[in-house]
Amino acid sequence: MPITPLMPVYPRCGVRPVRGEGVYLYGEQGEKYLDFASGIAVNALGHGHPKLVKAIADQAATLMHVSNLYGSPQGEKFAQRLVDASFADTVFFTNSGAEAVECAIKTARRYHFVNGNPERHDLITFDTAFHGRTLGTISATNQAKMRDGFEPLLPGFKYANFNDLEGALALIDDNTAGFLVEPIQGEGGIRPATKEFIKGLRKACDDHGLLLVLDEVQAGYGRTGKLFAHELYGVVPDIIAAAKGIGGGFPLGACLATEEAAKGMVIGTHGSTYGGNPLAMAAGEAVLDVILEPGFLENVEKMGARLRQALEQMLPNHDHLFDHVRGHGLMLGIKLKSDSRRFVAHCRDNHGLLTVAAGDNVVRILPPLVIDESHIAECIERLSEAARVYVPAADD
Ligand SMILES: *Cc1c(COP(=O)(O)O)cnc(C)c1O
């Protein structure tokens, strides 16, 4: 078999969407799917949101791209709004999550470099973490499936067990720059960090002059009912990476930092040809307009609680299959007692419900942030029916 023109790195399924409308996707033959995957937590406003569509269309007709060699009224305005809404003092815009994490890693290293401690270059990261697919970001996880065959990887990362504060603190030495951690692991299986863990990492950073770098690419941007997930923990990070929901489907990411943490990022130290171009800024502003509307985040929290409650009510009816629900807001996971990939495929192919499989046999439930009660009811109906007729594989 010759290689396919589209490099065959994804196990693509039979769903071939050609159109989206709100919380629904439509395939080539008109098949309709309830989309509780949202392009993996990207389509925060669902599909075809009129505000986002209009903002992109208007900006495309006005000015799509200019180089970062020129002044950016669009970037200045959007960055100011993110600064006003968060812990950060400054923002670098990227085109993806991995690039936002790369910028975060570079910012952390430069901080210690300009402080006269260039030997402090190691970030302590965590088991089952996911930070992206660039060489830097695969080096920041110890998951073999992402690293195998790509060695030599980037030095400067050490790995502790997620939620194991003692283990993480034990790795601190003269070369440590800080910690890089997802407040809620997404790909790893919707594993929320405990409060003690995140607070303990913050305290260690304060005690040892280290930086707390959070990867909020999946958990951030309204997904948990807070603009950023660290707000749930009552800690203030030094640097975060955001992406996924930030552009609502337009490729956009951001690295946000405090003035202190970003002090090494001076002229010439970093760049991106596309990063933060006027079209991306228009998309980002339209999404932020909606997310910051009064009541929007409260409604995410409310819908998250309803969905969780409905899932928890359903679980005991299918005791052979479901274990428990975890997560925050509209970033929920159902831990299964058997292979989650197979059940996700069953829901998709036989019940018109899109979810995402994750590590630890978890089914990720990541609906658009604009769902209402009717979508929750429909999801539960489809999930229950899918579970009722499901026969796990004999070897599961
Ligand atoms: C998706 C994801 C990334 C990578 O984002 P890309 O846009 O695919 O580069 C990084 N970190 C986390 C936590 C993610 O969920």
Automatic annotation (TrEMBL):
Keyword Hydrolase: no
EC number: 2.6.1.11
UniProtKB keywords: Amino-acid biosynthesis, Aminotransferase, Arginine biosynthesis, Cytoplasm, Pyridoxal phosphate, Transferase
Swiss-Prot/TrEMBL cofactor(s): pyridoxal 5'-phosphate
BP GO annotations: L-arginine biosynthetic process
Pfam families: Aminotran_3
Highest taxon above the source species: Bacteria
Enzyme class: transferase
Cellular component terms (Gene Ontology): cytoplasm
Binding positions for N(2)-acetyl-L-ornithine per the UniProt entry: R133, S272
InterPro entries cross-referenced by the UniProt entry: AcOrn/SuccOrn_fam (IPR004636), Aminotrans_3 (IPR005814), Aminotrans_3_PPA_site (IPR049704), Class-III_PLP-dep_AT (IPR050103), PyrdxlP-dep_Trfase (IPR015424), PyrdxlP-dep_Trfase_major (IPR015421), PyrdxlP-dep_Trfase_small (IPR015422)
Keyword check for Amino-acid biosynthesis: yes
Molecular functions (GO terms): identical protein binding; N2-acetyl-L-ornithine:2-oxoglutarate 5-aminotransferase activity; pyridoxal phosphate binding
Modified residues (N6-(pyridoxal phosphate)lysine): K244
Catalytic activity: N(2)-acetyl-L-ornithine + 2-oxoglutarate = N-acetyl-L-glutamate 5-semialdehyde + L-glutamate
Record's cofactor remark: Binds 1 pyridoxal phosphate per subunit.
Pathway(s) the chain acts in: Amino-acid biosynthesis; L-arginine biosynthesis; N(2)-acetyl-L-ornithine from L-glutamate: step 4/4
Subcellular compartments: Cytoplasm
Xref: HAMAP family: ArgD_aminotrans_3
Similarity field: Belongs to the class-III pyridoxal-phosphate-dependent aminotransferase family. ArgD subfamily.
Misc remark: May also have succinyldiaminopimelate aminotransferase activity, thus carrying out the corresponding step in lysine biosynthesis.
Subunit: Homodimer.
Protein known as: Acetylornithine aminotransferase
Biological source species: Sphingomonas alpina
Gene: argD
